[in-house]
Design brief:
It is a single chain. By secondary structure, the chain is of the alpha/beta class. The chain has 8 helices and 16 strands. It has 2 domains: 4-124 and 260-265, ATPase, nucleotide binding domain (Nucleotidyltransferase, domain 5), CATH 3.30.420.40; 139-255, ATPase, nucleotide binding domain (Nucleotidyltransferase, domain 5, 2-Layer Sandwich). Strands 1, 2, 3, 4, 5, 6 and 9 form a 7-stranded mixed β-sheet that branches. Strand 3 (24-31) and strand 4 form a beta hairpin. The chain is globular. The two termini are 16 Å apart.
């Protein structure tokens, strides 16, 4: 089960997971054998501007601090980045510097941190963690009819998405950019869009319903998991949604990106 914990664990199963966000960089040691956090999540501001060089400098400082505290540390590090990452190269840049475009992130961070680094899209990392968590607490999928196709959506500044099929992640699944009524879906149905347009929860649920119905039609998932900070208020809007597919709130909240980043190393 994925949960915060402080205990003795085999060094070989520990990984440092780092989640780079637009405003903050979160990090923690994660036991990849079961996804538990070994200690608390640390957080530092994301540098402004968030260029590759500036972010690499902060990540190197984080790694040095973790080592100085004497925590067990495997030689590999997992990093979640708000970008489409293909074969280690960034092909987009959301809320970070456009200098990331075309950057060989794996080469840069491995060189600057002095150890092997695995890099993934932040929504992919969060989705991987959420699916692993649910599999850990409900191995047979008894609550949702043994779901084989799971879609994880994070509702925040935009809409992040991750698709997991039979436990295998389909990377860089950018469903926030789907067009709904002539607009990008995330411009209408993200958490920021709700605040920007002053929508109450029922009004927001109507927009979210339109988006989710479209996604359901296109991909026919067995389960939809809604994450992002807004997921803690799920009781306000989930009851107003009506889909054939079960829709449930995420369980890991702000820990998902950190845990998922570490799991990609495993």
């Amino acid at each position: 089960m994925l949960a915060i914990a402080e205990r003795d664990v085999p060094v070989t199963s520990l990984r440092l997971g780092i989640d780079v966000g637009g405003t903050a960089i979160k990090y923690a040691m994660v036991d990849t054998a079961d996804g538990t956090l070994h200690g608390d999540i640390g957080e530092v501001p994301t540098p402004t501007p968030a260029t590759p060089d500036a972010v690499a400098t902060v990540l190197a400082e984080i790694l040095a601090q973790v080592r100085l505290r004497g925590l067990p540390l495997d030689s590999s590090v997992g990093v979640a980045l708000p970008a489409v990452v293909r074969h280690g190269v960034a092909h987009s840049a959301a809320n970070i510097s456009p200098e990331w475009l075309g950057c060989d992130v794996v080469e840069l961070l491995s060189r600057r941190l002095g150890c092997p680094v695995t890099v993934s899209n932040d929504a992919d990392a969060a989705g991987l963690a959420e699916v692993a968590h649910r599999a850990a607490i409900d191995p047979g999928g008894s609550n949702n009819g043994d779901p084989h196709v799971i879609l994880v959506l994070t509702l925040g500044t935009g809409i992040g998405s991750a698709l997991v099929v039979d436990g295998v992640l389909v990377p860089n699944f950018e469903l926030g950019h789907l067009q709904i009524g002539g607009m990008k879906a995330e411009a209408k149905a993200s958490a920021v869009a709700r605040e920007r347009d002053g929508l109450n929860w029922r009004e927001y649920a109507l927009r979210l319903q339109e988006y989710l119905s479209h996604v359901e039609f296109l991909f026919s998932p067995d389960l939809v998991i809604l994450g992002g900070g807004i997921s803690v208020r799920h009781e306000e809007f989930l009851p107003h949604l009506s889909l054939r597919t079960p829709v449930v709130p995420a369980l890991l909240a702000n820990k998902a990106g950190v845990v998922g980043a570490a799991l990609t190393v495993r």
